[in-house]
């Protein structure tokens, strides 16, 4: 029997690490399970990352909803815990660098009446959105000086 797995993130510039993480989250759901992905609102990107998103939330939501392992993508709530409570997943798949600490998250959800398994997924390679942005800036700044 499949499970409902929830993964969440900004997904500002989709790269192979995102896709591999989503495939692993989908595996946690099982053959007849469901992977629901919560895409962070623009205001939450500003709040948690301290910067504006590169791609607006509606476009990030569209991209994520069209990735093969994703069964359903939703725009997150202002309070990220509210998205989890609304979806009521069996499992939460956290990325290696996501802010929530597993023990704290489980306790906060327990207070809200949810017993959820929390799984921390590994880092997949050395690709990151910030690394991609840095490389683009480096390339364009270097090219403009020549």
Secondary structure tally: strands: 5
**Distance between the ends:** 60 Å
CATH class: Alpha Beta
Strand content: 15-25%
- State the helix count: 6
CATH superfamily caption: HUPs
How would you characterize this protein structure?
The chain has helices spanning 16-29, 42-49, 57-65, 80-87, 102-111, 129-145, and strands at residues 4-9, 34-39, 72-75, 91-94, 117-120. It has a 5-stranded parallel sheet. It has 6 helices and 5 strands; from the N terminus they run βαβααβαβαβα. The chain has one domain (4-145): HUPs (Rossmann fold), CATH 3.40.50. The chain is an alpha/beta fold and 146 residues long. The model has no long low-confidence stretch (mean pLDDT 92).
SSE map:
Blueprint: E1 4-9, H1 16-29, E2 34-39, H2 42-49, H3 57-65, E3 72-75, H4 80-87, E4 91-94, H5 102-111, E5 117-120, H6 129-145
Parallel strand pairs: 1-2, 1-4, 2-3, 4-5
Give me a quick take on this structure.
This protein is of the alpha/beta class and 146 residues long.
